[in-house]
Amino acid sequence: MNSSNDTRTEQDLLGQAEIPKHAYYGIQTWRAQQNFDLSGVSLQHFPHLISALAMVKQAAARANCQLGFLDQEPADAIEQACRLITGGEFHDAFIVDMIQGGAGTSTNMNANEVIANVALELSGHSKGDYQHLHPNNHVNMSQSTNDAYPTAVRLAILLSHGNLVSRLTSLQTSLIAKAEEFSDILKMGRTQLQDAVPMTLGQEFNSWASTLGEDIQRIAGLAELLTEVNLGGTAIGTGINADKRYGKLAVSELAKISGYPLIQATDLVEASSDMGAFVLFSSMLKRLAIKLSKIANDLRLLSMGPRAGLNEINLPPQQPGSSIMPGKINPVIPEAVNQVAYQVMGNDLAVCMAAEAGQLQLNAMEPLIAFNVLESIRLLSQAMPMLEERCIAGITANREHCRHLVDNSIGVVTALNPHIGYENATRIARQALHSGASVVDLVREEALLSDSQLAEILKPENMIHPGR
Protein backbone atom coordinates (compact mmCIF):
# COMPACT_ATOMS: atom_id res chain seq x y z
CA MET A 1 0.00 0.00 0.00
CA ASN A 2 1.27 3.48 -0.89
CA SER A 3 1.91 5.85 1.99
CA SER A 4 0.66 9.43 1.93
CA ASN A 5 4.22 10.46 1.16
CA ASP A 6 4.11 8.56 -2.14
CA THR A 7 0.76 9.78 -3.46
CA ARG A 8 -1.48 12.80 -3.72
CA THR A 9 -5.27 12.68 -3.64
CA GLU A 10 -7.16 14.00 -6.66
CA GLN A 11 -10.89 14.15 -7.26
CA ASP A 12 -13.13 14.12 -10.33
CA LEU A 13 -16.77 13.39 -11.20
CA LEU A 14 -16.49 9.74 -10.10
CA GLY A 15 -14.73 10.32 -6.80
CA GLN A 16 -11.19 10.32 -5.45
CA ALA A 17 -8.03 8.46 -6.43
CA GLU A 18 -4.47 8.29 -5.19
CA ILE A 19 -2.08 9.52 -7.86
CA PRO A 20 1.68 8.93 -7.61
CA LYS A 21 3.11 12.12 -6.16
CA HIS A 22 5.85 12.31 -8.78
CA ALA A 23 3.39 11.94 -11.70
CA TYR A 24 2.70 14.91 -13.95
CA TYR A 25 -0.56 13.35 -15.10
CA GLY A 26 -3.71 13.51 -12.99
CA ILE A 27 -6.80 11.55 -12.07
CA GLN A 28 -8.50 11.51 -15.48
CA THR A 29 -5.32 10.23 -17.13
CA TRP A 30 -5.05 7.63 -14.36
CA ARG A 31 -8.62 6.44 -14.99
CA ALA A 32 -7.97 6.20 -18.73
CA GLN A 33 -4.87 4.11 -18.10
CA GLN A 34 -6.96 1.70 -16.00
CA ASN A 35 -9.71 1.53 -18.61
CA PHE A 36 -7.80 1.29 -21.88
CA ASP A 37 -5.09 -1.34 -21.68
CA LEU A 38 -5.50 -2.21 -25.33
CA SER A 39 -2.79 -1.68 -27.92
CA GLY A 40 0.17 -1.22 -25.61
CA VAL A 41 0.97 1.86 -27.71
CA SER A 42 0.70 5.04 -25.66
CA LEU A 43 0.71 8.66 -26.77
CA GLN A 44 4.45 8.91 -26.15
CA HIS A 45 4.92 6.51 -29.08
CA PHE A 46 4.11 9.50 -31.33
CA PRO A 47 6.17 12.52 -30.21
CA HIS A 48 4.69 14.72 -32.93
CA LEU A 49 1.20 14.18 -31.51
CA ILE A 50 2.37 15.25 -28.05
CA SER A 51 4.06 18.32 -29.54
CA ALA A 52 0.91 19.15 -31.49
CA LEU A 53 -1.23 18.90 -28.36
CA ALA A 54 1.15 21.26 -26.55
CA MET A 55 1.07 23.72 -29.44
CA VAL A 56 -2.73 23.75 -29.43
CA LYS A 57 -2.78 24.45 -25.67
CA GLN A 58 -0.14 27.16 -26.06
CA ALA A 59 -2.15 28.87 -28.80
CA ALA A 60 -5.32 28.67 -26.71
CA ALA A 61 -3.55 30.24 -23.72
CA ARG A 62 -2.26 33.09 -25.85
CA ALA A 63 -5.67 33.77 -27.35
CA ASN A 64 -7.46 33.62 -23.99
CA CYS A 65 -4.88 35.95 -22.46
CA GLN A 66 -5.17 38.46 -25.30
CA LEU A 67 -8.95 38.47 -24.92
CA GLY A 68 -8.67 39.06 -21.17
CA PHE A 69 -10.04 35.70 -20.01
CA LEU A 70 -6.75 34.28 -18.71
CA ASP A 71 -4.42 36.26 -16.46
CA GLN A 72 -0.90 36.87 -17.67
CA GLU A 73 0.83 34.79 -14.98
CA PRO A 74 -0.99 31.47 -15.61
CA ALA A 75 -0.87 32.15 -19.35
CA ASP A 76 2.90 32.54 -19.20
CA ALA A 77 3.26 29.39 -17.11
CA ILE A 78 1.13 27.39 -19.55
CA GLU A 79 3.16 28.73 -22.48
CA GLN A 80 6.45 27.83 -20.83
CA ALA A 81 5.19 24.33 -19.99
CA CYS A 82 4.03 23.83 -23.58
CA ARG A 83 7.37 24.93 -24.97
CA LEU A 84 9.18 22.43 -22.75
CA ILE A 85 6.88 19.64 -23.92
CA THR A 86 7.28 20.64 -27.56
CA GLY A 87 11.02 20.51 -26.95
CA GLY A 88 10.76 16.86 -25.92
CA GLU A 89 10.43 17.04 -22.15
CA PHE A 90 7.79 15.26 -20.03
CA HIS A 91 6.74 12.95 -22.88
CA ASP A 92 6.91 9.99 -20.51
CA ALA A 93 3.89 11.45 -18.69
CA PHE A 94 1.68 10.92 -21.76
CA ILE A 95 0.62 7.40 -20.83
CA VAL A 96 -2.87 6.99 -22.31
CA ASP A 97 -3.36 4.23 -24.89
CA MET A 98 -3.77 5.52 -28.44
CA ILE A 99 -6.97 3.46 -28.77
CA GLN A 100 -9.54 4.75 -26.30
CA GLY A 101 -13.22 5.47 -25.91
CA GLY A 102 -14.47 9.01 -25.49
CA ALA A 103 -13.51 10.53 -28.85
CA GLY A 104 -10.08 11.54 -27.57
CA THR A 105 -11.13 12.99 -24.20
CA SER A 106 -8.51 10.90 -22.40
CA THR A 107 -5.79 12.23 -24.69
CA ASN A 108 -6.98 15.80 -24.24
CA MET A 109 -7.08 15.43 -20.46
CA ASN A 110 -3.68 13.77 -20.37
CA ALA A 111 -2.34 16.88 -22.09
CA ASN A 112 -4.33 19.25 -19.87
CA GLU A 113 -3.13 17.58 -16.68
CA VAL A 114 0.53 17.32 -17.65
CA ILE A 115 0.65 20.92 -18.83
CA ALA A 116 -1.13 22.10 -15.66
CA ASN A 117 1.25 20.25 -13.34
CA VAL A 118 4.37 21.36 -15.21
CA ALA A 119 3.06 24.93 -15.14
CA LEU A 120 2.32 24.64 -11.41
CA GLU A 121 5.89 23.58 -10.69
CA LEU A 122 7.24 26.39 -12.84
CA SER A 123 5.12 28.77 -10.76
CA GLY A 124 6.46 27.41 -7.47
CA HIS A 125 3.45 25.25 -6.59
CA SER A 126 3.08 21.50 -6.05
CA LYS A 127 1.63 19.07 -8.55
CA GLY A 128 -2.09 18.77 -8.00
CA ASP A 129 -2.45 22.28 -6.52
CA TYR A 130 -5.14 23.00 -9.05
CA GLN A 131 -6.61 25.97 -7.19
CA HIS A 132 -3.70 27.94 -8.63
CA LEU A 133 -3.86 26.55 -12.16
CA HIS A 134 -6.48 24.02 -13.23
CA PRO A 135 -6.35 21.48 -16.12
CA ASN A 136 -9.91 22.28 -17.21
CA ASN A 137 -10.48 25.86 -16.10
CA HIS A 138 -7.19 27.23 -17.39
CA VAL A 139 -5.39 24.84 -19.75
CA ASN A 140 -8.62 23.73 -21.47
CA MET A 141 -10.23 27.19 -21.43
CA SER A 142 -12.44 27.93 -24.48
CA GLN A 143 -11.86 24.40 -25.77
CA SER A 144 -13.46 21.00 -26.00
CA THR A 145 -11.83 17.68 -26.77
CA ASN A 146 -13.90 17.83 -29.94
CA ASP A 147 -11.98 20.77 -31.38
CA ALA A 148 -8.62 20.60 -29.55
CA TYR A 149 -7.99 16.91 -30.25
CA PRO A 150 -8.83 16.87 -34.00
CA THR A 151 -6.76 20.01 -34.47
CA ALA A 152 -3.81 18.37 -32.73
CA VAL A 153 -4.16 15.19 -34.79
CA ARG A 154 -4.12 17.19 -38.02
CA LEU A 155 -1.09 19.14 -36.86
CA ALA A 156 0.67 15.92 -35.80
CA ILE A 157 0.25 14.54 -39.32
CA LEU A 158 1.63 17.77 -40.77
CA LEU A 159 4.61 17.59 -38.41
CA SER A 160 5.24 13.95 -39.45
CA HIS A 161 4.61 14.53 -43.13
CA GLY A 162 7.86 16.37 -43.94
CA ASN A 163 10.03 13.45 -42.86
CA LEU A 164 7.90 11.05 -44.93
CA VAL A 165 8.28 13.14 -48.08
CA SER A 166 12.01 13.62 -47.47
CA ARG A 167 12.59 9.89 -47.19
CA LEU A 168 10.46 9.18 -50.23
CA THR A 169 12.47 11.73 -52.21
CA SER A 170 15.73 10.17 -51.06
CA LEU A 171 14.58 6.70 -52.12
CA GLN A 172 13.58 8.00 -55.52
CA THR A 173 17.00 9.63 -55.93
CA SER A 174 18.71 6.35 -55.10
CA LEU A 175 16.64 4.52 -57.72
CA ILE A 176 17.50 7.16 -60.32
CA ALA A 177 21.21 6.67 -59.57
CA LYS A 178 20.85 2.93 -60.11
CA ALA A 179 18.91 3.55 -63.33
CA GLU A 180 21.84 5.54 -64.66
CA GLU A 181 24.34 2.91 -63.52
CA PHE A 182 22.40 0.15 -65.31
CA SER A 183 21.38 2.18 -68.36
CA ASP A 184 23.39 0.08 -70.83
CA ILE A 185 22.52 -3.38 -69.51
CA LEU A 186 20.20 -5.15 -71.95
CA LYS A 187 17.71 -7.62 -70.45
CA MET A 188 14.35 -9.19 -71.14
CA GLY A 189 11.19 -7.45 -70.10
CA ARG A 190 8.40 -9.72 -68.95
CA THR A 191 4.62 -9.65 -68.94
CA GLN A 192 2.56 -12.20 -67.02
CA LEU A 193 5.98 -13.55 -65.92
CA GLN A 194 6.64 -14.60 -69.51
CA ASP A 195 9.37 -13.30 -71.82
CA ALA A 196 8.17 -10.17 -73.59
CA VAL A 197 10.58 -7.79 -75.33
CA PRO A 198 14.04 -6.44 -74.54
CA MET A 199 14.63 -3.42 -72.34
CA THR A 200 17.46 -2.17 -70.17
CA LEU A 201 17.83 -2.78 -66.49
CA GLY A 202 18.15 0.98 -66.19
CA GLN A 203 14.69 1.44 -67.66
CA GLU A 204 13.30 -0.97 -65.08
CA PHE A 205 14.85 0.94 -62.17
CA ASN A 206 13.82 4.25 -63.67
CA SER A 207 10.20 3.09 -63.85
CA TRP A 208 10.28 2.50 -60.09
CA ALA A 209 11.74 5.96 -59.54
CA SER A 210 9.05 7.51 -61.71
CA THR A 211 6.15 5.81 -59.96
CA LEU A 212 7.41 6.96 -56.55
CA GLY A 213 8.01 10.46 -57.91
CA GLU A 214 4.34 10.74 -58.77
CA ASP A 215 3.48 10.38 -55.08
CA ILE A 216 5.81 13.07 -53.75
CA GLN A 217 3.68 15.95 -55.00
CA ARG A 218 0.40 14.15 -54.32
CA ILE A 219 1.27 13.50 -50.68
CA ALA A 220 2.39 17.10 -50.28
CA GLY A 221 -0.83 18.34 -51.88
CA LEU A 222 -3.09 16.19 -49.74
CA ALA A 223 -1.38 17.45 -46.59
CA GLU A 224 -2.80 20.88 -47.39
CA LEU A 225 -6.27 19.49 -46.62
CA LEU A 226 -5.14 19.04 -43.03
CA THR A 227 -4.39 22.74 -42.55
CA GLU A 228 -8.12 23.43 -42.14
CA VAL A 229 -8.94 22.94 -38.44
CA ASN A 230 -12.02 23.27 -36.26
CA LEU A 231 -10.37 24.96 -33.28
CA GLY A 232 -12.90 27.35 -31.79
CA GLY A 233 -15.87 25.10 -32.52
CA THR A 234 -15.72 23.58 -29.01
CA ALA A 235 -18.24 20.77 -28.41
CA ILE A 236 -20.06 20.41 -31.74
CA GLY A 237 -18.99 23.40 -33.81
CA THR A 238 -21.33 26.02 -32.37
CA GLY A 239 -18.55 27.60 -30.31
CA ILE A 240 -20.35 27.34 -26.98
CA ASN A 241 -18.31 28.57 -23.98
CA ALA A 242 -15.86 30.43 -26.23
CA ASP A 243 -15.77 34.10 -27.16
CA LYS A 244 -16.73 34.65 -30.80
CA ARG A 245 -13.31 36.20 -31.42
CA TYR A 246 -11.43 33.31 -29.84
CA GLY A 247 -11.43 30.71 -32.64
CA LYS A 248 -9.80 32.72 -35.41
CA LEU A 249 -7.34 34.23 -32.93
CA ALA A 250 -6.36 30.83 -31.53
CA VAL A 251 -5.90 29.38 -35.02
CA SER A 252 -3.78 32.37 -36.00
CA GLU A 253 -1.59 31.88 -32.93
CA LEU A 254 -1.32 28.15 -33.65
CA ALA A 255 -0.15 28.93 -37.19
CA LYS A 256 2.60 31.15 -35.76
CA ILE A 257 3.67 28.56 -33.20
CA SER A 258 3.66 25.59 -35.56
CA GLY A 259 4.89 27.29 -38.72
CA TYR A 260 2.05 25.78 -40.77
CA PRO A 261 -0.55 27.91 -42.63
CA LEU A 262 -3.49 26.74 -40.55
CA ILE A 263 -6.92 28.20 -41.16
CA GLN A 264 -10.24 27.87 -39.37
CA ALA A 265 -12.85 25.77 -41.15
CA THR A 266 -15.73 27.78 -42.62
CA ASP A 267 -18.34 25.34 -41.29
CA LEU A 268 -17.27 24.29 -37.81
CA VAL A 269 -20.22 21.95 -37.31
CA GLU A 270 -19.27 20.02 -40.44
CA ALA A 271 -15.57 20.11 -39.55
CA SER A 272 -16.25 18.65 -36.11
CA SER A 273 -17.70 15.43 -37.50
CA ASP A 274 -16.16 15.03 -40.97
CA MET A 275 -13.13 12.74 -41.33
CA GLY A 276 -12.75 13.14 -45.10
CA ALA A 277 -9.27 14.64 -45.02
CA PHE A 278 -7.99 11.69 -42.98
CA VAL A 279 -9.58 9.22 -45.39
CA LEU A 280 -7.89 10.84 -48.38
CA PHE A 281 -4.51 11.09 -46.70
CA SER A 282 -4.66 7.49 -45.47
CA SER A 283 -5.61 6.36 -48.96
CA MET A 284 -2.54 8.13 -50.33
CA LEU A 285 -0.37 6.33 -47.79
CA LYS A 286 -1.95 3.05 -48.92
CA ARG A 287 -1.18 3.91 -52.54
CA LEU A 288 2.48 4.53 -51.64
CA ALA A 289 2.57 1.26 -49.71
CA ILE A 290 1.20 -0.66 -52.69
CA LYS A 291 3.85 0.83 -54.96
CA LEU A 292 6.64 0.00 -52.53
CA SER A 293 5.34 -3.54 -52.21
CA LYS A 294 5.29 -3.98 -55.98
CA ILE A 295 8.90 -2.79 -56.18
CA ALA A 296 9.82 -5.21 -53.39
CA ASN A 297 8.14 -8.04 -55.30
CA ASP A 298 10.14 -7.18 -58.43
CA LEU A 299 13.40 -7.07 -56.51
CA ARG A 300 12.72 -10.50 -55.06
CA LEU A 301 11.90 -11.95 -58.49
CA LEU A 302 14.87 -10.40 -60.30
CA SER A 303 17.30 -11.62 -57.62
CA MET A 304 15.85 -15.11 -57.28
CA GLY A 305 18.35 -17.95 -57.53
CA PRO A 306 21.25 -17.58 -57.55
CA ARG A 307 21.63 -20.68 -59.72
CA ALA A 308 18.07 -21.75 -60.45
CA GLY A 309 16.26 -18.44 -60.86
CA LEU A 310 16.30 -15.23 -62.88
CA ASN A 311 19.42 -13.98 -61.11
CA GLU A 312 19.57 -10.73 -63.08
CA ILE A 313 20.54 -8.67 -60.04
CA ASN A 314 22.23 -9.32 -56.72
CA LEU A 315 20.79 -7.85 -53.55
CA PRO A 316 23.35 -7.01 -50.87
CA PRO A 317 23.41 -9.86 -48.32
CA GLN A 318 22.20 -8.76 -44.90
CA GLN A 319 22.04 -11.95 -42.85
CA PRO A 320 22.24 -15.74 -43.18
CA GLY A 321 19.03 -17.06 -44.65
CA SER A 322 18.53 -20.44 -43.08
CA SER A 323 19.14 -22.41 -39.92
CA ILE A 324 19.44 -25.62 -41.98
CA MET A 325 20.54 -24.69 -45.53
CA PRO A 326 24.17 -23.48 -45.58
CA GLY A 327 24.92 -20.62 -47.97
CA LYS A 328 21.32 -19.49 -48.36
CA ILE A 329 20.72 -15.73 -48.37
CA ASN A 330 17.16 -14.40 -48.29
CA PRO A 331 15.83 -11.08 -49.65
CA VAL A 332 14.95 -9.98 -46.12
CA ILE A 333 14.77 -6.23 -46.79
CA PRO A 334 12.18 -6.45 -49.61
CA GLU A 335 10.27 -9.01 -47.53
CA ALA A 336 10.12 -6.56 -44.63
CA VAL A 337 8.92 -3.81 -46.97
CA ASN A 338 6.13 -6.11 -48.17
CA GLN A 339 4.99 -6.66 -44.61
CA VAL A 340 5.04 -2.94 -43.82
CA ALA A 341 2.92 -2.38 -46.91
CA TYR A 342 0.36 -4.97 -45.86
CA GLN A 343 0.10 -3.35 -42.44
CA VAL A 344 -0.44 0.08 -43.98
CA MET A 345 -3.17 -1.36 -46.20
CA GLY A 346 -4.85 -2.81 -43.12
CA ASN A 347 -4.49 0.51 -41.31
CA ASP A 348 -6.25 2.24 -44.17
CA LEU A 349 -9.19 -0.14 -43.93
CA ALA A 350 -9.46 0.63 -40.21
CA VAL A 351 -9.41 4.37 -41.00
CA CYS A 352 -12.20 3.96 -43.54
CA MET A 353 -14.39 1.99 -41.15
CA ALA A 354 -13.78 4.44 -38.30
CA ALA A 355 -14.55 7.43 -40.53
CA GLU A 356 -17.80 5.82 -41.67
CA ALA A 357 -18.79 5.18 -38.05
CA GLY A 358 -19.29 8.86 -37.25
CA GLN A 359 -22.72 9.67 -35.85
CA LEU A 360 -24.52 13.00 -35.88
CA GLN A 361 -22.23 15.83 -34.69
CA LEU A 362 -19.12 13.82 -33.75
CA ASN A 363 -16.99 10.87 -34.73
CA ALA A 364 -16.17 8.98 -31.55
CA MET A 365 -13.77 6.68 -33.44
CA GLU A 366 -11.23 9.40 -34.21
CA PRO A 367 -8.60 7.92 -31.85
CA LEU A 368 -8.43 4.86 -34.10
CA ILE A 369 -8.03 7.13 -37.13
CA ALA A 370 -5.23 9.06 -35.44
CA PHE A 371 -3.47 5.86 -34.38
CA ASN A 372 -3.57 4.24 -37.80
CA VAL A 373 -2.64 7.28 -39.89
CA LEU A 374 0.28 8.18 -37.63
CA GLU A 375 1.38 4.54 -37.48
CA SER A 376 1.29 4.26 -41.27
CA ILE A 377 3.43 7.39 -41.59
CA ARG A 378 5.87 5.99 -39.03
CA LEU A 379 6.13 2.59 -40.70
CA LEU A 380 6.63 4.01 -44.18
CA SER A 381 9.14 6.54 -42.91
CA GLN A 382 11.14 3.69 -41.38
CA ALA A 383 10.77 1.27 -44.29
CA MET A 384 11.94 3.59 -47.07
CA PRO A 385 15.43 4.36 -45.69
CA MET A 386 15.82 0.69 -44.80
CA LEU A 387 15.05 -0.23 -48.42
CA GLU A 388 17.31 2.48 -49.77
CA GLU A 389 20.34 1.96 -47.53
CA ARG A 390 20.25 -1.79 -47.00
CA CYS A 391 19.08 -2.88 -50.43
CA ILE A 392 18.91 -0.41 -53.34
CA ALA A 393 22.28 1.23 -52.75
CA GLY A 394 24.14 -2.09 -52.83
CA ILE A 395 22.45 -3.80 -55.78
CA THR A 396 24.73 -5.12 -58.50
CA ALA A 397 23.80 -6.45 -61.94
CA ASN A 398 24.74 -9.69 -63.69
CA ARG A 399 25.38 -8.07 -67.06
CA GLU A 400 26.46 -11.12 -69.07
CA HIS A 401 23.66 -13.28 -67.72
CA CYS A 402 21.09 -10.63 -68.64
CA ARG A 403 22.43 -10.51 -72.21
CA HIS A 404 22.48 -14.29 -72.44
CA LEU A 405 18.82 -14.42 -71.51
CA VAL A 406 18.01 -11.88 -74.23
CA ASP A 407 19.97 -13.69 -76.90
CA ASN A 408 18.25 -16.98 -76.10
CA SER A 409 14.77 -15.62 -75.60
CA ILE A 410 11.95 -16.19 -78.01
CA GLY A 411 10.85 -12.68 -77.16
CA VAL A 412 13.49 -11.34 -79.58
CA VAL A 413 11.21 -12.38 -82.41
CA THR A 414 8.96 -9.42 -81.59
CA ALA A 415 11.73 -7.09 -82.74
CA LEU A 416 11.93 -9.02 -86.02
CA ASN A 417 8.18 -9.12 -86.58
CA PRO A 418 7.93 -5.83 -88.58
CA HIS A 419 10.70 -7.05 -90.88
CA ILE A 420 9.74 -10.69 -91.55
CA GLY A 421 5.98 -10.54 -91.06
CA TYR A 422 3.72 -11.97 -88.38
CA GLU A 423 3.32 -15.42 -90.02
CA ASN A 424 7.05 -15.96 -90.36
CA ALA A 425 7.66 -14.63 -86.85
CA THR A 426 5.06 -16.98 -85.38
CA ARG A 427 6.52 -19.97 -87.21
CA ILE A 428 10.09 -19.09 -86.15
CA ALA A 429 8.98 -18.66 -82.53
CA ARG A 430 7.28 -22.05 -82.57
CA GLN A 431 10.36 -23.75 -84.02
CA ALA A 432 12.66 -22.07 -81.49
CA LEU A 433 10.41 -23.11 -78.64
CA HIS A 434 10.31 -26.77 -79.67
CA SER A 435 13.87 -27.18 -80.92
CA GLY A 436 15.73 -25.06 -78.40
CA ALA A 437 17.48 -23.21 -81.25
CA SER A 438 17.85 -19.46 -81.07
CA VAL A 439 15.50 -17.20 -83.00
CA VAL A 440 18.41 -15.45 -84.69
CA ASP A 441 19.95 -18.74 -85.93
CA LEU A 442 16.62 -19.87 -87.40
CA VAL A 443 16.14 -16.56 -89.22
CA ARG A 444 19.65 -16.90 -90.65
CA GLU A 445 19.01 -20.49 -91.74
CA GLU A 446 15.93 -19.43 -93.70
CA ALA A 447 17.71 -16.34 -95.08
CA LEU A 448 14.78 -14.18 -94.02
CA LEU A 449 17.22 -11.39 -93.14
CA SER A 450 20.89 -10.78 -93.83
CA ASP A 451 23.48 -10.66 -91.09
CA SER A 452 23.80 -6.91 -91.49
CA GLN A 453 20.04 -6.47 -91.20
CA LEU A 454 19.91 -8.66 -88.10
CA ALA A 455 22.77 -6.77 -86.52
CA GLU A 456 21.03 -3.45 -87.12
CA ILE A 457 17.62 -4.60 -85.89
CA LEU A 458 19.07 -6.25 -82.77
CA LYS A 459 21.17 -3.30 -81.69
CA PRO A 460 20.17 -2.56 -78.09
CA GLU A 461 19.35 1.05 -78.88
CA ASN A 462 17.00 -0.05 -81.64
CA MET A 463 15.16 -2.54 -79.47
CA ILE A 464 14.59 -0.39 -76.42
CA HIS A 465 13.42 2.87 -77.99
CA PRO A 466 10.44 3.68 -80.24
CA GLY A 467 11.08 3.73 -83.95
CA ARG A 468 11.83 1.31 -86.77
What attributes characterize this protein structure?
468 residues, mainly alpha, two-stranded antiparallel sheet, 18 helices, 8 strands
Structure in a nutshell:
58% of the residues lie in helices and 7% in strands. With 468 residues, the chain is mainly α.
**How would you describe the oligomerization state of the chains in this entry?**
single chain
Number of helices: 18
Shape, principal axes of CA atoms: elongated
Q: Rg, please?
A: 30 Å
Strand tally is 8
In N-to-C order, the SSE pattern is EEHHHHHHEEHEHEHHEHHEHHHHHH
- Beta-strand content: 5-15%
Helix content: 55-70%
Regions with little confidence, pLDDT below 50 for 5+ residues? none
Mean of residue pLDDT values = 93
Side-by-side strand order of the widest sheet: 1-2
Largest sheet: 2 strands, antiparallel
User: Termini, distance in Å?
Assistant: 88 Å
**Helix and strand composition category:** mainly alpha
